[in-house]
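Q: My labmate handed me this sequence with no annotations at all. I'd like to see what the chain might look like in three dimensions before we decide whether it's worth expressing. Could you predict it?
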Amino acid sequence: KGKILGHDRSRTLREKFGGTKTVEIELKNLDTHDALPLVRSILIDLNVESPEPGLIKISSLEDTNAVLKAIGLISSRGIEIENIRITPPSLEDVFLEIVRKSEGQP
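A: Here is what I predict for the chain of 106 residues:
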């Protein structure tokens, strides 16, 4: 038999069980050479990578303040930011997290 493990609006479920958010910072000059070390110096415990020129990708559970601090530092050094995208966890990620917790896994 199936059992309902969670029932709420998708936004509420994402907030409660969400998991990892992805923040992408797209630089105007496409050069991550100066910006990437700055971001990594602040976001020591987070996954920070540059999958392509001009893009810094940060995976974070909840550390929004540190990400904002990194964005401020990039901007203060004269590195222009073209775009910032924040991608919440998918509903599939939420589903898997709910199932994992219901089975007693950490």
